[in-house]
Amino acid sequence: MATVRLDQKGRALTRAIPASFDKALAKFFGSGPNDIELAKAQHLAYREALLAANVEVTVLPSDDKLPDSIFVEDQAVVIDGHVLLPVPGHPARVAEQPPIAEFVTRQLTGTQVCSMNGEARMDGGDIIRLGDLFFVGRSSRTNDAGIKELRDLLTHLGHELRVVEIPGHALHLTSISSTPTDSVIFAPEGYLPEDAFGVLPEGCEVIWMPKDEAYGCNTIGLPNGQVLVAEGYPTVLATVEAMGLQPVVLDMSQIRAADGSLTCCSLFY
Ligand code: CIR
What we know:
The protein is α/β, with parallel strands linked by helices. Helix content is 20%, strand content 24%. It starts with 10 loop residues before the first strand and ends with a strand. The relative contact order is 0.20.
């Protein structure tokens, strides 16, 4: 979802939690989910929060063969109605893509769908958007060939792309940052250098959060002034309130245990 502006967040795709969710990849924030029923309840609360903010939410059926398949953000990149289908950066996640691709292609009829090829690798979770300025993480999942294909699309659309180096102790760019509004980036100290995002357009800023609130830096700003935030990150919460926005706090413990954040669970289109 991180590839849409606030005003483009009308419709979101999600995918239900599979019975195999406890087998999801986990290496960074979590050591693996251990309570599938709680995960389902957290995912339901997440969808309900989006619905309550007037977002149209679709839930694709779960697939027990694909433990990580709730993380739909990684499988398709939607920018201004254009679709780029990345080659997922982890081989275990490649089979998640076809139903997501089919859904967005059907929804965005008339759109040209581009697919990455060859050596290109990318997870959608490595992209954030600040207004019309884009950032991509060069990470264990996203390589230079993938970044080149994203840049080609953004150049075609007239948007700038900047590359952020993701440190080895983080999964994706969205794992440690987000844009709760079109002019603010939340990012954690100790993960990225101060100049990681370069000189921002006038009126935009990076708000640096304490290192131990890295997970909390992933938020979802919504057009109605609400911001979905994960429970347990007091500086992030206080900052959202100080910005005059309305935080909606969600328990993400089981999803965090699979290294997933708020944005990872939806694809805005
Ligand atoms: C993975 O390792 O791929 C999943 N367990 C977590 C993916 C989270 N997605 C994201 O940050 N966009």
